[in-house]
């Protein structure tokens, strides 16, 4: 690894950067996609740090040399000092069709920020990378076991399924902590509570392919543009940072029309179909757009609520691409310890445990319901700050949250629902 030149010595010259750009154009060299900024040269766009690193390798004669400056402002400032244009990256892929499409494209080109101030009083001299407000706190195995209500063996099994398949679905009744666990699994593989590498979406009946993958959307003036959805933008970030994992968390997977939303992702999700070698062209993408692929360092974790009878089951093609982890109610020692630590009385804890055990047994034994409809522990994970309020807190949870759920479970048998609620309130 070469030693970086002293700051007083220029790292690169304009000719060295031009030499790198010519080599990229000549060889058709693939570069990792940029995330926030692009170097614009002769109508083409390049990731600034990748160009700088190639120029640095050519200048030092070392093909393994690493560019000594981080991406963003440090690299952009140097390239701008050599009279190269750095622009902020736009999410719009192409202008809409119609007679005003060419005008829109021209206006976008006029609005392009070049890094060179048109008005020195109004614009900064260079683009600045958005700074990180704080370092992400570390997250360890001990942290996970301290706040999750699953045992160590189950945690290991969930992590093994996620690392093996790259895709994991957490399924279970309501209130079993599926979304809570999904985020903690991501933190464990990240080693930190790093939200910058986690994207959370929730599926619903109106969510579609255009929101998730690629589609036309109107701007403020009612003109339509082709805009990438959540997944391509996250894949772009992950591909530009291949040494670190990225996570897509999908809450309530089965509330959406999954085959329609996923589209090409249904194929590319497979662990052995990742990377550029398996890239596909998206239907709406323009002919000159790069093909889409899912990078190997992207993990997908979804949650499934098994108790919602209005939802369609997942098809077998989708199921084959995921590892599944079943979660159930956890009325065990961890919840008991948490409640006791908040000074909830032993008698009230025993009442809670006894009533919920009896209710869940009744639900599990009902032929029209079953174990998928049992009620989870997360309803009781936020006890009141003042211990004297605990009895009223528990009563209101039974009346306002669990009671209506039971009325829905036994909507054809209201007397049964009312009887079960009365048992909880005794």
From TrEMBL:
Pfam families: AAA_5, ScoMcrA_N. Residues 164-328 form the AAA+ ATPase domain. Gene3D superfamilies: P-loop containing nucleotide triphosphate hydrolases. It comes from the Bacteria. InterPro entries: AAA+_ATPase, ATPase_dyneun-rel_AAA, Methyl-DNA_Rec/Restrict_Enz, P-loop_NTPase, ScoMcrA_N. This is AAA family ATPase.
